[in-house]
């Protein structure tokens, strides 16, 4: 800490408290706790002894968390089925003061369930000797059951002061040299930048694990019919993925591809479990296996046939490790796009000349999470402990928590690699709660194609369903750089599936809404049929005569290329209507009204279901209703996506459709249809021969999946903030 003191014969200078520290193996207990200093704490997690049994078989799958303050700084690997685990894992931690003890918590890992608490202990850092290795034995306790014996954890620790932080200056040195003080500030600033760089690297993904779940072979029969309904769960640290369910088979064919992110400092063990889906009761366990990523070479695809333990059968997978730093978090002081050289490199990476270089790397996204204002009070004290979660598909990063504040300032920069330009950036604000799961405070969803680069904007926070406003505004500054050609090509392949999605639940209001949406799409076809039939009935002679002449002209001159040509003309017509101000797109008020009161209705339904408990008891009926609800949603969304393509809801996609239709028109005009069908058939028949593990896809459906439905249009709609919350007005008020 810097103290300002007056010395005779000298001006007032900030000097360092002349407190000498003996670093030759003596205790640091004499050092005042108020004195700052950056320390390096090297910990070796040795082993555990006589830990508590938390599983049915009388064992546990223990792992250890280290926390300083409220922040998790290290997590060990999982040792399966062992009450005397040996970890021998090392962690290097930077500690800015010794007042906060090191908090050690041990958990029993349970796949798919909440991990069981196995005990905790504290390590008082002020009692450690500097520069001397110390073996520490910690007795685990449970605060709720202090008399229970939960075993011990053995550690080896070394506490060393960081170079450049403890500086000794005598009074004569201060009087004799002003430059020694400047030297301290230079070292202090250098250390801060180095710590910022360390903080940034600690949140950096070092690689991507690409997994393709191909098939299962000879799995264990769990149902009375001698078959199973298998699905597979994957877990790497906090990342999870659940495959689709394959009904009534022992040799399922999944053909599913997904990605995990790999941290260099964490254990690379993927836990895999196979399950049999049972409606109305708990799913049956089929077997488990693991993948040790440290044993696999990088930049190479490995085909693995894994034997299921505690069960029968095999799983066949393709695993590829790619060394790539894709996502990072840093303070505002470390900004990629403000560095001229880094910005030029990023622009060069996504320039039109690098179209065929790494087609999966579509673009670069930088998000500045600046602050929030007027948040909801979640605590009884009238305050909140807000933190922010930034998500792009499966990339998920968090800010720190600002305690007891409704107007927090985070000032964090997040960077992401974009794999699909049609992705939606989700920013969610939560209230941290040590005893319970975090409380939801608000959320915004921002399509990447709607972002205006470099503009600081105030986004009104929405509710969980993204249908209406909630209390608070969040200030973001976002930049997107991407290659348009790569983005267009990626539009024609399947979307990336999210690891963690909310489970479908039965909702009377949602079922009704989907039914109305589907009915609206069907009624468009019915009305068109009535209109055509009225032409045949000559209800309006001029209209029927015009239709008859048009019919003769089209049939006599019809060529196949005219189909995409007509669609192209329809897109062009709507485009000129929009730019001329004659936009004929109508807001779907029915959907909006239902979306606005959906949350209120769902709350009523939830309360009624808690009282009656009827739906929860009849699982089979519930699943059927959910299936109908989802089918209606898919049918309605399909029709709405076609409409929104021609309505220019997403201009990028509409322009892409124009390019494709132009190409199809030219191809159909110059190339006979039989040649086109021949090429299409040869490609379909030989696709599996050329690549046996290729994932089937339909380019047209993949394109339409990127077009938002009417519900998504409402969810992504930006609400207008209160003018009093604008950054400019706020700045003027502060100056005033």
From TrEMBL:
Work out whether the entry's keyword set contains Endoplasmic reticulum: yes
* GO molecular function annotation: calcium ion binding
GO CC annotations on file: endoplasmic reticulum membrane; recycling endosome; synaptic vesicle membrane
**What highest taxon heads this organism's lineage?**
Eukaryota
Q: In what way does this protein cross or attach to the membrane?
A: Multi-pass membrane protein
One short Pfam name that applies is C2
Q: Does the keyword rRNA processing apply?
A: no
Q: Which SMART domains match?
A: C2
Q: Where mainly found?
A: membrane
Q: Where in the cell is it found?
A: Cytoplasmic vesicle, Secretory vesicle, Synaptic vesicle membrane; Endoplasmic reticulum membrane; Recycling endosome
Q: Which family does it belong to?
A: Belongs to the MCTP family.
Q: What is this protein called?
A: Multiple C2 and transmembrane domain-containing protein 1
UniProt source species: Bison bison bison
